[in-house]
Design a protein that fits this description.
With about 190 residues, this protein is an alpha/beta fold. The protein has a single domain, classed as Spore Coat Polysaccharide Biosynthesis Protein SpsA, Chain A. The protein has 7 helices and 9 strands, in the order ββαββαβαβββααβαα. Strands 5, 6, 7, 8 and 9 form a 5-stranded mixed β-sheet that branches. The two termini are about 30 Å apart.
């Protein structure tokens, strides 16, 4: 992409600021590679891996959640500008009602698991370590390898567009135009 996604402007704010405006509840941390800069009031959790695969960021987030004694970690990729607060709240509500054996609660949108807009139990770190030692980095395989819950869009009261991400400057421009013209609310 040529620049860090978190700094891309969309609808008058950066992708990072837009996501943070939706989750300024509870204990929020930003997970990213070492060396990235963030505003001073954010807790930063370093993904210290030299490899670039989402499972490493998930592992870092679960380590932080484990140290805080959290029952669940809610992971939200910064590049989901259409995701609404009410959808995040509903996802966490569903997760909090799950039995302790359930290790992940993951939305499915348009046939795809939304592994970076999901809830994970910190206890999943042990299996992540085993998989990484075996060279396995797929979050989809990790999720499906044990007790999990797939959540439909209807259960979330969400639309498929909420899970549309921004991966290119053209997609950022398109999102900017759509958000500006539709005045899509954060909430």
């Amino acid at each position: 992409m040529g620049s860090d996604k978190k700094d891309l402007p969309v609808a008058g704010e950066t992708l990072l600021d837009r996501m943070l405006s939706k989750v300024r509840i509870g204990n929020v941390a930003v997970v990213a590679k070492n060396g990235e800069s963030f505003p001073g009031d954010l807790r930063f959790v370093a993904d210290q891996s030299t490899e670039f695969a989402p499972i490493f960021g998930v592992d870092a987030a679960l380590g932080d959640a484990s140290m805080r004694g959290a029952e669940w970690a809610v992971l939200l990729a910064v590049d989901l500008p259409f995701l609404r607060t009410r959808t995040i709240s509903r996802l966490t509500e569903i997760a909090s009602g799950e039995l302790s054996a359930c290790r992940a609660v993951v939305p499915e949108a348009d046939g795809f698991l939304q592994t970076l807009a999901a809830c994970y139990r910190p206890s999943l770190r042990a299996e992540i370590a085993t998989r990484l030692a075996e060279g396995k980095t797929s979050l989809h395989h990790l999720i499906r390898s044990g007790p999990h819950r797939i959540v439909s869009l209807s259960e979330l009261g969400a639309g498929v567009d909420e899970f549309r991400n921004v991966n290119t400057p053209g997609e950022a421009e398109s999102a900017e135009q759509q958000l500006a013209s539709e005045r899509i609310p954060v909430r």
